[in-house]
Every structure is written in structure tokens, then in C-alpha cells.
Amino acid sequence: MSSIMKAWRQGLLGAVMLGSAVVVAEPPPTNSAQGTQLHGSERFESINIPHASVEGPPLPSGVTCATVKSGMVGGRIVVWQVTCTGGTPPFPGALQDGPSLVGTTFRAPFEGRSVKLVIQEARCHVGITGAPVACSTENLNSGAARWEFRVSATTDDKTTVPLCPTGSGFALAVPHPWSAGGELLNNPDYFTFACAPSNQGTSSSPFFVGGGVIAKCIDWGYAPWSGATNGDDITRDSHELCTRMARADYCGEGKSNTLDGTPLSFMGPQNALALSTNGYPAATVNQGQYALEAVWARDSCGTVRPLCLGKKRWDSLSLEATCLNRALEAGTPPVIATGPSIRPCEDMKLTNFADDTLLVSYSLFIDRALVMFKKNDTEFVTTTSVVADLQEHPGFMDVSTFKTDLTGDGLADMPSPYVPLRAEGPILSAKLPANIKKRMGAFIKPLYRCVDSAGRKLLTDSNTCAPATGFFLHAMNSDQGIEGYVYSSVDTVGTGQRRPLKLWKHPTLGFYATSTQSPSSAFVFIKDLGYLPAVGQLPGRDL
């Protein structure tokens, strides 16, 4: 090892021994929001960067260095150029980090080819919680501060684009690679760039948009390293636990089950127990605004997944979540006479898990499940007023365990003439937070609930229920008759898709139906109502 590297490491380790960061963030951070991407780099989400691919920053004229290496020490990427010859005066070699890395190049496998990554700019990172921390030598050596980088990406077709197209445009350098299933792998030969969000609000009322959950979890206190060191299994496990929670990856397979920007609050087991009643997690926090979402843990096989989901989350699931029974199998109680069942988190004793590494999450659930029900063969109702049967929640496409709750009292309608037919997808909640609704502006529009004198129901985009003659607005609990919000235009750029929601009519019986597809061959198309967001996509990237 060169004298430069030895001196740098000695100074760094001395700072670490004086004090290093805590792996678990307690109390819970503020200004939180779920995200749908790990890295936030859109097209380049899957790349892992080999340190061996490094090409150091430009050298003085006439200088060549026999050794150029890249590595991570905690959250700090460094490049050392040693055994150098030439130059006037002679170049003794250097260890580069922060702004001195501008011009450094890496190459990573990408879509069967490679992508060239070039550091264009470096600056001191400002986290999403707390006051800015200056990138002084002391703060960098202790791990209290870190650099972030603006990086360009050039593919083999010579197209150059920003690596971070949303958020702040800057990325943190993070040790170790990730699997396609969202697992943090222990391999110091690789690192990744994690795009950071940007504050589109104010310092007193922040609103963070874009980026990925890796950067968010680091800012929340769950970095995959300790202080300025490279960390251990505990820090990596806690970081992955945070990223699974932040993406609502209920199945531990790298698939998000939330909408980007969904407001989130979370805490570790001690804070959750402090708020609990008789050892059970509180049903709501933040003056009742945030409802219990899930209790997250790492199982004996090393898979991170929820031990349970909160009752309101079961009811709001759009059913695009896959393998729900398999993913939550660890949360089932012993087999009883009626067979195994899945507990809601409200029924799980936190005191039984007080010594485990847990996170308890709460959310505003800005998405709701939009489900179509059938009455006879001609009358249909599409609604978000549903209740999930926790005894057997089948997951994707199977809606057999959903029941209508058209009275909105949280209980299944009994008896009910409606049979579940199809999950249309998610819809933005009628209780969409005011700041999100304001930012979305004309990009979203309300979907209104209408009924006629016979009790037949439909959803349309007009508060006069047009064009459905004989129908009138049906308001419940002062909600102005708004069932929820849909997009008013289609996404022509994003990698996700939005599904058009349409109004249909039976030409002879006069019945209407709201659905993404015709209820039967007898129905004819009337009009487009808007577009449903795709799970794992929006609205955060449209703000």
C-alpha cells in the first residue's frame, strides 16, 4: 500500500475510533415518503459498477501512473493514482476524493453491452433531514458528511444522458452491488450510484421529489456502513430492511407495491412499543393521519418482508402485489379449525419481537384498490369501498376475497348482491394530501360517484354525472361525491404504463359501467374518463 493511502487510512481510522454513526435511526425521521426505485436512475436501475473499471481523473501533462485503483471507505469513494512517472515537477501520486474526482470514469455492464459513467461535478451532500453538514476533513473522516456527484451516462450508441434524471440530479456513491430482486449483496469489488431526491417545497415545509430509496434510507440513518468504515452484516441488513419498507416490497422480490411519493412515517421497535397499547402497535400516528402499514423484519432465511400488514393496507391493496400469501407466510398464526389465516398488524404483539431488528411503518395510503363487482349479468359497480378478507387474500388478479363496503363503515355489506369480478388497478385516494393535490394540478382530475333512483351506480368525470341521464351525484360523509382521482393525460415518456378508465353503456337496458375494459360484449363504449396510475410508478415523478 502506498504511503499516501496508509496515511489517509490511519487518519480516517483514528476519527472512527472516536465516534461512529449508529446503525438504527431512532426516533423516526420526518419528511418521509415512499419511492418505487432503489437507485432512482430510471433506465440504469440495474447497473452495478466494478471498481476495477476505473479510469482516474486527468493527470498533469506527461504523467503516467502504473496503478489506478478505486475503493469505498464507508460512504466515501476514493481513487488513488500511484507509481507515477513524468511531469515537471515529478508527480508523486495522489489520493483523490470529492471534487478532485471530477473527470473520473467507470464502466458497468448494461443490457449486454456497457455504459460509461463520468463524474462531472462533486458537491457536499445535503440530506433530507436536519441541517446541512459541511464537508470538512473532520466531518468527512467521521462519516458525518459525504460527497455527492453529478454523473453522465453514455451507452454504446454514444447517447449521453444524466444518470439521475429526476430529483436533485446528484448521486451518492454506495458500497456493494444489488440483485435484480432488491437484495444488497456483500461484494466490495462493486459499488453503485444512488440518486438523491430534491426538495421542491421550503425549508419549513419540505416536499421531496424523485431520487431513489437507497439515498433516502442513508439520510434517514440506515446507511450500509458504520460511520466512516465499511460496516458489517448488521449495517447492510438494516439498510436493506429500510429499502424494502420504503418501496413497500411486500414480497421481498424487488417489486414495489406503492405509488411514488406516498407519505410515510416509521420507527424502530422501541419507539413503536412506547406508542403501543398492551404491546400491540398503535393503529395510527401523527394525530391519526397515518394508518399502520406493516411490521418489517428479516426472517431466518435472510429475506426481508413484512410479518403482517395493517388492516387498512389490506383493504387498499390494488392486487398488483404478487405472492402475498407466500410473502406473509411467516406472519400466520398456528393452524386452527378453519385453516391458517393472516393476521393484521393490529393483532400482533410487538413485545414478542422486542429484541429483533424491526421497522414499523405507517402511511397515508394515497392509492386505493378499484374493484369491479357484478350484480346479475348486466349491472356492475366499480368502487374503492372494499373490505379485504384476511382469512385468505389470494393476491394478483384474484378478487374473490374482496367484499363491498358501500356504506363506508369499514365493514363488509351484509347481505350483498354484488360478486367481485375484476381488479381494475389503483386509483389516487379521495383523501389525497392537499400538498400533493396542489402540485399535481390539472394533471389529475376527480372521479365522481353517481347513482340513479333505482340504486344503480357508476363513476364518471363529471360532477353532474353527464352523460348518464337520470343519475345524480352521491356524496358520502361530506366527500363531495369524489371516489378518487385519476390522471387526465397519458404518460408518453415513462417506462410504466397507465391504463385508460372508460364509461360503458348497455344500449338496450340502459345500464352503465365504469371499467378499463368492456364488462361484456353487449356494452358499448361511451367515453374515456382518465387513466389509472401503474403501481410502482407515480405520482412523485409527475410533480
Write up this protein.
The relative contact order is 0.10. This protein folds into three domains: 223 residues, no CATH class; 118 residues, no CATH class; 166 residues, no CATH class. The chain is mainly β and 543 residues long. Strands 18, 19, 22, 23, 24, 25 and 26 form a seven-stranded antiparallel sheet that branches. Strands 13, 14, 15, 16 and 17 form a five-stranded antiparallel sheet that branches. The longest helix has 16 residues. The radius of gyration is 26 Å and the shape is elongated. Helix content is 12%, strand content 31%.
Number of strands: 29
Tell me the radius of gyration: 26 Å
Q: What general outline do the C-alpha atoms trace?
A: elongated
**With helices defined by DSSP (H or I, 4 residues minimum), what is the helix count?**
8
List the domain count as a whole number. Answer: 3
Strand content: 25-35%
Domain ADYC: 100-314
Protein name: ADYC domain-containing protein
Keywords: Signal
InterPro entries: ADYC
